[in-house]
Amino acid sequence: MPYTARKPPLPETTEQLRARIPGWGVDLDPRDRPAFPREVPDEAVIAAEPLPEQQPELRPRERSVEHLRLTPVFGTAQPLHGLSGAVKRLAYARYSEARAAHWLLLLAGDRIESAGAHLRSLATAHPDDPVTESGVLGERGAHPVRSRLGEHRADLSHTPLDPVVVGGPWVLAVGAAVLGVRAVVRRTRR
Amino acid sequence: MKAMVYRGPYKLRVEEKDRPRIEHPQDAVVRVTLATICGSDLHLYHGMMPDTRIGHTFGHEFVGVVDEVGSAVENLKVGDRVMVPFNVYCGTCFFCARGLYSNCHNVNPNATAVGGIYGYSHTTGGYDGGQAQYVRVPFADVGPSVIPDWLSDADAVPLTDAVSTGYFGAQLADVVEGDVVVVLGAGPVGLTAARSAWFMGAGRVIVVDHLDFRLEKARTWAYAETVNFSQVDDVVLHLKRMTGGLGADAVIDCVGAEADGNLLQHVTSAKLKLQGGSPIALNWAIDAVRKGGTVSVMGAYGPMFSAVKFGDAMNKGLTLRMNQTPVKRQWPRLLEHVRAGLLTPSDLLTHTFPLDDIAEAYHVFSSKLDGCIKAAVVPGQD
Ligand SMILES: NC(=O)c1ccc[n+]([C@@H]2O[C@H](COP(=O)([O-])OP(=O)(O)OC[C@H]3O[C@@H](n4cnc5c(N)ncnc54)[C@H](O)[C@@H]3O)[C@@H](O)[C@H]2O)c1
Ligand SMILES: [Zn+2]
Ligand SMILES: [Zn+2]
Description:
The complex is a heterodimer.
Chain A: H1 14-20, H2 43-48, H3 82-94, H4 100-121, H5 130-133, H6 144-149, H7 161-189
Chain B: E1 2-6, E2 12-16, E3 28-36, H1 39-45, E4 61-69, E5 81-84, E6 87-88, E7 116-117, E8 134-137, E9 145-146, H2 153-156, H3 162-172, E10 180-184, H4 188-199, E11 204-209, H5 212-220, E12 225-228, H6 235-242, E13 248-253, H7 263-271, H8 280-288, E14 289-297, H9 310-315, E15 319-322, H10 327-339, E16 351-354, H11 358-366, E17 375-378
Parallel strand pairs in B: 10-11, 10-13, 11-12, 13-14, 14-15, 16-17
Antiparallel strand pairs in B: 1-2, 3-4, 3-8, 3-17, 4-5, 5-9, 6-7
Helix pairs in contact in B: 3-4, 3-10, 6-8
Residues 38-40, 42-43, 161-162, 165, 184-190, 208-211, 214, 229, 254-257, 259-261, 280-281, 298-300, 324-325 of chain B line the site of nicotinamide-adenine-dinucleotide.
C-alpha cells in the first residue's frame, strides 16, 4: 500500500476521535495556534525603538565576544573568581560561541571551580557531604527496587556509572594526593 | 533566605543566601510559593551545561507573590499572585518585538545563541532561579502575569514551562487533520505534547518511552497509543511498521540531551560530556518521520556538537522546527483550554517536597523512582 498515492487509513474516524478525546480539533485552524506564524512583528515597538535603561555594572561583567555591548540587563549571581574565573574570562573574551574552545574552556572552568569548592568546604563547618547532597537518602520510601526492576528500563545498563561519575573525581583526587605525597617522600629520602 | 544551591555534578544542598534586591528599575522581587523541577534542570544537575557555577540556584518553573517592585514597574504591585514564564526577556529588542521571547537579545551577556532563563547557569544569563524563598524577576511588567482567581498555584506552575512547552511542541509539528504524530518521551513535556496534538486535529498519536508507568499515563491522560522502546528490537522499524511503512507525518522530540536507548551515545554525552547532548531521540525522530515530514524538537541540548544524522534529514526533505518556548505567547489560548477543562496541568504533579529535602527531590525525579512524573518544591517561610 505505501507504494500507491493513498494515505494509510486511520484506525478511527473524525467523529470517533471527537467523541473520545476532549478538545479534539479545537486548534485545527492554524490561526488559533499561538505559535503561528512564527514571527509576529509588533510594528509600534519596532517604530519606537525603545532601549531599556542600563543596569549598573557594579563589577566587571564578562560577556560573549559576540555581543557588541553589555546587555541592558544581566544576572549578577556568582561572579567569576579565582583560577576558574580566569579560564572562563578567557573563553568569553577570546573565542566566539562557534568555537569548541569556548565551551570546552567553560566546562574546564566548571570542573576547576567544583574541585576548589569541595576542598574549601572541608575547612568549613559545612563540608560537602556526598550522602546528603546526592539525594540518595530519597531512595527511602521511594520503592528503589520495584521502581527499577518492575519496569522495562533501558537506563539500568548505565545506572552503576552514576556513583562513578559522582564519586570518581573524589577517588582520583585522593589517589593523586597519595601519589604526590609518596613522590615527595621518596625524593626527600634519596 | 533559604535557597537550593548547586555543589557540582549530582550534588546540591540548601543554603542561607541574601534575599535578592532590585537591581534595575524594571525588576521585581517575588516570594516563591511553589516551584517545580523540570527535565531541563536535570541537564544542569548532571553537569552538562557549560558555566554552571557552584552556588547557583536552579529553578525556572515557579509561581509566587510580588514582594517588592522597582521604580519603573507599572502593572504589578506588592501582593499580586503571579506566574512567571521561564524566559527572562525585555519585550522590545529585535527578537522580542517579533514574538521570539525565548530569543531575547538584551538579557544574556554570556551568549547570543540562547536567551535568558531563570536559574539555568550563566550560559543563559547568570540569574538565580526560583527553587528558593525569593527570586529576582527582571522586566516585571513584561513576563509575569497575575494568576486568575479561578486558577490554583498547582495548576499555574506547570504553565510556566512544561505544559506551555508541550503545547508549543505540538504546534511546531505543523499538524494537519488526520496526521500521525509520534511523541518521543513521556515526561511532562511529552505527555502535554501528545495531549495537544489532538487539539491540532491529529488522527493518531503514538508515545514512546521506556518507563511503563509514564506510558500508562500517556494512555490514560493523553489518550495515546504507546510503545516501550526497550521492548522492541528496533524502535524506528517498529514505528514504520505501525504507520503503513511510510513513517509518521510528524515526530516531536520531548527527550533531549540525556536520551537513553544507545549505551555509547548516552555515555559519551550524558556521562563523559564529549557531546553537547545524546542525540538518540533526535536521530530516531529523523528516521521515523516520513519523507517530507516535520520534526519538532522540544528536547534541550547543550551548546556543543552532537552526532546527529543530518544526511537522512536532508535526503528525506524534512522540516526541522524547534525553539525554547516563548511561554507567554501560549498563555491566552492555553488558559482558555485549561478553563474549559480540556487539560488540567496539576495532573502532572506526582510528588511534593519541602525545600529542605530538595536534594532528595532531584534524586527521585532524576532516577524516575516511585512513579515520579513531576516533583514540586515548597519553599515555605521562616
Ligand atoms: N524547549 C523548551 O522550551 C523546553 C522546556 C522544558 C523542557 N524542555 C526539555 O524537554 C525535555 C523533556 O522534559 P521533561 O520535563 O518532560 O523531562 P523528563 O526527564 O521528565 O522526561 C524525559 C522522558 O524521556 C524518556 N526517554 C529517555 N530516552 C528516550 C528515548 N530515546 N526515546 C523516548 N523517550 C526517552 C525518559 O524515560 C523520560 O520519561 C528535556 O530535554 C527538557 O530539557 C525544553
Ligand atoms: Zn524547563
Ligand atoms: Zn528582548
